[in-house]
Specification:
This protein has 181 residues and is of the alpha+beta class. It is built from 3 helices and 11 strands. Strands 10-9-8-7-11 form a 5-stranded antiparallel beta sheet, with no helix packed on it. It has a 4-stranded antiparallel beta sheet with strand order 2-5-1-6, covered by helices on one side. It has a two-stranded antiparallel sheet with strand order 3-4. Pfam families: KOW (PF00467), NusG (PF02357).
Length: 181
């Protein structure tokens, strides 16, 4: 059975007040159990609130979903086990019963959480490959044509070599600044 494993966001229920401990513990377990290729990000949605205390404004960071942590992962038996058995975790949200796999969040749900926090997650579908020729759409190098030399998935950037004054010059650009030719 060949199925493409995709990383998706899952909601993990924690003991109340243990969100930060779970995040720390899980990140340590990912490192020590070598699960970096299956468990990517652990995220506690927060937002800043302004409170009045003793007549003074004070900004306090509050958890958007107390008792919950979001985990970006590829769901396998191993990754499920690592997350499920992290101290402070009581289970996944969206799983019915002890053996069944949980339901991932839909992309628009993740987007809504980021928006609520005031964070726009850049969703870059990378449709480029190394050594591909592209045209720069905007910025100081607009209309230059170059070759992709490096793709930085985590930063949503690519390094393109453009010909400037007869020389190959490396330029770092956002994905949305280039287009296929």
């Amino acid at each position: 059975m060949s199925c493409v494993m995709e990383k998706q966001w899952y909601v993990v229920h924690t003991y109340s007040g243990y969100e930060n401990k779970v995040k720390t513990n899980l990140e340590k377990r990912v490192e020590s159990m070598d699960m970096k290729d299956k468990i990517f990000r652990v995220f506690i949605p927060t937002e800043d609130e302004v409170e009045m205390k003793d007549g003074k404004k004070k900004t306090v960071t509050k958890k958007v979903f107390p008792g919950y942590v979001l985990v970006e992962m590829i769901m396998t038996d191993d990754s499920w086990y690592v997350v499920r058995n992290t101290p402070g975790v009581t289970g996944f949200v969206g799983s019915s019963g002890s053996g069944s796999k949980p339901t991932p969040l839909k992309p628009n749900e993740v987007e809504a959480i980021y928006k609520q926090m005031g964070v726009e997650e850049v969703k870059a579908k990378i449709d480029f490959s190394l050594k591909e020729t592209v045209k720069v759409k905007e910025g100081p190098f607009a209309d230059f044509v170059g070759t992709i030399e490096e793709i930085q998935l985590d930063k949503h950037k690519i390094k393109v070599h453009v010909n400037m004054f007869g020389r190959e010059t490396p330029v770092e650009l956002d994905y949305n600044q280039v287009e296929k030719i």
